[in-house]
């Protein structure tokens, strides 16, 4: 019987993702939505970004 090998996607810390060219445009948003001590796969980061970017912008006006 053939053995099946489970491959895990590489996981990255926030600092590594901030240095990535892929996430250069959303670096500030990454700092808000990701925990610095946790690791994330690119699939997880993309899903979190999609959710964060889909939220409507709320404008706060000082009175």
Overview of this structure, please?
The model has no long low-confidence stretch (mean pLDDT about 90). The chain is built from 3 helices and no strands. It starts with 13 loop residues before the first helix and ends in a 9-residue tail after the last helix. The protein has a domain at about 15-55. Helix content is about 40%, strand content about 0%. The chain has helices at about 15-20, 25-35, 40-55. The protein is an all-alpha fold.
Strand and helix map with partners:
Layout: H1 14-19, H2 27-33, H3 42-54
Brief summary of the model shown:
The protein is mainly alpha-helical. Helices cover 41% and strands 0% of the residues.
Low-confidence spans: pLDDT under 50, at least 5 residues? none
Q: How many whole angstroms does the radius of gyration measure?
A: 16 Å
Helix content estimate: 40-55%
The tally of strands reads 0
Shape: elongated
Main pleated sheet: none
Beta-strand content bin: under 5%
The number of distinct helices, counting runs of at least 4 residues, comes to 3
> What is the arithmetic mean of pLDDT?
90
Secondary-structure element sequence? Answer: HHH
Class by SSE composition: mainly alpha
- Cα distance spanning the termini: 72 Å
